[in-house]
Amino acid sequence: MVCTAYDAKPNELMHIPNGLISQASMRKVKSLGVRRGYPDLFMPIPKGSYHGLFLELKAPDIDVARGLSPDQKKVLKQLRDRGYMVATANCLSDATRVIIAYLGGKHETI
């Protein structure tokens, strides 16, 4: 398992449920702190010069470079500027590769 091989705890990979919110629930979750544009996954494990990893997931048929909304582009830039590794993936194998590379300190391959 990826987590145990790199001394990461399973609860150190979190899902940020922005994309699963219905319009009816939007007002309530906004009051709880949910914000548009944040990536789907967050791993709060510092590695190298990074404070943690944010990972945006896209459907397999979406071009990850062009499939980001303006809100996502803005937030991803802010996160990078704050010292976080930010990546996108559109399949499970790509997401796994990104996480393994990040945890292994191979940031130039992400």
Secondary-structure topology with pairs:
Layout: H1 2-5, E1 14-15, H2 23-31, E2 41-43, E3 53-57, H3 70-81, E4 85-89, H4 92-103
Parallel strand pairs: 3-4
Antiparallel strand pairs: 1-2, 2-3
Can you give a write-up of this model?
- The chain is of the alpha+beta class and 110 residues long.
- It contains four helices and four strands; from the N terminus they run αβαββαβα.
- It is globular, with a radius of gyration of 14 Å.
SSE pattern: HEHEEHEH
In terms of DSSP E residues, the strand content is 5-15%
Largest sheet at a glance?
A: 4 strands, mixed
The mean pLDDT is 85
Uncertain stretches of 5 or more adjacent residues: none
The chain-level structural class is: alpha+beta
User: How much helical structure, as a percent, in the residues?
Assistant: 25-40%
CA-CA gap between termini:
20 Å
Q: Identify the strand order in the major beta sheet.
A: 1-2-3-4
Per DSSP E runs of 2 or more residues, the count of β-strands stands at 4
Put simply, the count of helices is 4
Shape descriptor: globular
Radius of gyration: 14 Å
In short:
The protein is of the alpha+beta class. It is about 35% helix and about 15% strand.
Structural features:
single chain, about 110 residues, alpha+beta, about 15% strand
